[in-house]
Amino acid sequence: MFRVNNTTYSKNFLFQPTKNKLRIAIISAMPEELKFFYDKFSELKATNIKLGQFDSAVYEYKEADILITHVGLGTTFTAAVLTLIHAHFKPEYVLLSGTAGGINAKLNLRDVVIAENAFEAEIQDIFTELKGTPFESCLKHPLKNENFPHVYSANEELLEMINSLQIEGITIHKGTVVSSNTFPAPKELFEKIKSKNPYSIDMETSALYQTAWLLDAKVLAVRGISNVLKSDGTDDQLHLSDVTGSAHAAAKVLFVILDNILQMKHTLKKSQAALTHEATKLIKKYNLQQHPEGGYFSATYKSTDEITSTDPNRYNNEKRSAGTSIYYLLDKSDYSAWHSLKSDETWHFYYGSPIYVYIIDKSGELKTHLLGNSFMTEGASFQVHIQAGDWFAAENVDKATCSFVGCTVSPGFEYHDFILANRSDLTEKFPQHREIIEKLTRDFDLSNRNLQVVRC
C-alpha cells in the first residue's frame, strides 16, 4: 500500500500507459506545494506508478493521465526525479509548481512568476573562467555535443500558450528565475545574480530546465512568491514566509495552464483529423505544432548574436536575438489571425496554395499582398515584408489544399512581443476594415485565456 494526501492506494493497481493518451507530470519540492492538486483530484481514480523504487500516483483527468509527485528540495533531487519520470512515465509535459523568494522589486507576496528562463547561480562564472584553459572542453556537453547555454529556457510551445494568461486576484509575471542550493540565496554571489535581472530565486527550476535540455523534455515552472529578499540577499523574516498562500497561488495558475493544455490538445486532435494529406506529411516531417494565431509552426533558427534597439522602450530595455525563423503551415480554410509584432517580419513562400497577406499599417491603410510562386501565379511574390507595429493576417487562396512558408523575424521573435488582436477592439480602431477584421479574428473566452489575446 502507499499513501497520498491521507488516501491509501493499492500497489496491485499498477499504472499501464495507454498508447496515444496524453501524459503530464506535475511536480514540486514540498508537500504543501501539491496539496491544491491532491484536493482537486481527490474524487478521481488514482493508480500506482513506480518511478524506479519509488511509488507515486497517476490520476485520470479529462482523458489524460496526470502524474503528481514530489522531487524534494534542491537541484540534485529535481534532476534525478525528472530523469526517473522521463524514463518510467514518459510525459509529454512536466510542470513544476511551488514557491520562491522574490528578488525583483515589483514582486509582492502571493504574486506568481512563470519562469521563461532559468540559470544556476553557482556556475555562472565558469563560462568565462574556463575559456582559454585546459578545462575549456568542459563547456560542451559530451553527449549532446553542444555548448552549455548560459541560461535554459522553458518549452516554447507552453510559453506561447500562456503568453498573456490572466487570473482574477493573482498578479502574474514572466521572467527569469535563478536557482541555488544556498537558502535563501548565496550572499557572496547576490550582486552578480541581481545583474542578470531575475525575478525570483528557488532551489529547483534551473535543474528542471537543465535536465529538460538534456532529455529534450517539455517543461514549465510556476513559482509563487512566499518571501521577498533584501537587497543583500538575506531575509530576516523567513519565519513569516507565506508558504501556504504562495503555493496555492502558483498551483491555481498551473491548474489553469493544465486545463489549457488539455483544451489545446483536444482542439488539435479534432483539427488534425480533417487535415489534408500534404499537411499531415509536412506536420510530421517538420514536427510542426499548433500556433495560437492559427496554423502550425516549428522554430528552425535563432541567432546567437544579440542586439539592442536604438529605441530603449521598444523591447523594455531588453536585448533581442539578431534574428529568428520558423516553418509555418496553413491548411485549407485555416488562417493566421490578425496580430502584430514589435519586430519586422518577412514571409517566404515554399509550397502549396498562394496566400493573401493583409496588412493594416500605422496610418490605417489596408494593403493586400499575394504570397506565392511568381512563375506560376500572376501577381504573386516569393516574399512579403511586414513592418514592426503593423497589424497583419493571412489566408490561403485555395481552400482545398495547404500552404507551407517560412517566417523570418528581425530582431528575433520573443513571445511577449506578439499581440493577437481582439476582434471588437480592432474593428473599433479600424471600422473601415470591419469585414476583413471580423473574418480573420477568432472568438476566444477572455476570462480563461489559453491563447494571447491583447487589447489593441
What does this structure look like?
The chain folds into 2 domains: 2-263, Rossmann fold (3-Layer(aba) Sandwich), CATH 3.40.50.1580; 275-439, Jelly Rolls (Sandwich), CATH 2.60.120.10. Helix 2 packs parallel to helix 6. Strand 9 (140-141) and strand 10 (146-147) form a beta hairpin. It has 10 helices and 27 strands. It is of the alpha+beta class and 456 residues long. The strands form 6 sheets. The protein has a 6-stranded antiparallel sheet with strand order 15-16-19-26-21-24, with helices on one face. Strands 7-13-12-8-14 form a 5-stranded mixed beta barrel.
Which strands sit side by side, in order, in the main sheet?
Answer: 15-16-19-26-21-24
Distance between the termini: 55 Å
In CATH terms, the superfamily of the largest domain is: Nucleoside phosphorylase domain
Q: Indicate the proportion of strand residues.
A: 25-35%
Rg computed from alpha carbons, rounded to a whole number of angstroms: 23 Å
CATH-defined topology of the largest domain = Rossmann fold
- Count of beta strands: 27
Structural class: alpha+beta
Largest sheet: 6 strands, antiparallel
Unreliable spans are 1-13, 444-456
Tally of alpha and pi helices: 10
Number of separate domains: 2
CATH class of the largest domain: Alpha Beta
Mean pLDDT over all positions: 90
| CATH architectural arrangement of the largest domain | 3-Layer(aba) Sandwich
Shape field: globular
Question: Share of helix among residues?
Answer: 10-25%
